[in-house]
Description:
The protein is of the alpha+beta class. The chain is built from two helices and ten strands, in the order ααββββββββββ.
Amino acid sequence: MRTTSPFGSHRRSAVALAVAAALLATGATGCGSSDSSSAAPPSPSMSANAPAAVVTVRDPWVKAADKGMTAAFGTLVNDGDTDVTLTGVATSASPMELHEMTMKDGKMVMRQKQGGIVIKAKGSHALEPGGDHLMLMNLARPVRAGDQLTVTLTFADGRTQEFTAVAKPFTGAQESYAPGHGEPMPGMSATPEMSMSPAS
Length: 200
């Protein structure tokens, strides 16, 4: 009659458990390595190489227009420790100039802003209807509500910065963006008194 050691069944069970544990560990290691490579965080050099913005442009928008002239607006925010001067502006839709509204002979007139626009350190400068604005001089194509225009700002130190402005309908400040734009529109007040916010 054949006898078996009382330890034989325990030894087989221990070997089977060791093999199973080894297989599970190998599988987990394989999954772990593929998961860690696919979930690797983006390289910090991608964001570190992006040039720092000279200013922040808050709420940029452009007045919708079919032809002729129009203007872009927003708020320029300078978080830096030194003043910056905006000296130029450009877009593919039109030649552009920095403009201001001022009183001349009792009339509100629009003219090119000499010396650029200074944004004080830790300060802001509003571009708004009835005030300083970025003038699109001769539209190459209509700018319709919802269109997006890329605008390039140039600063006195040679740095440039782009922002995107969304076109919106606006009838508020009553200045005319048409040839002879130094004069108020017929039948309208020369002093902008209406809301300075674009239509939403």
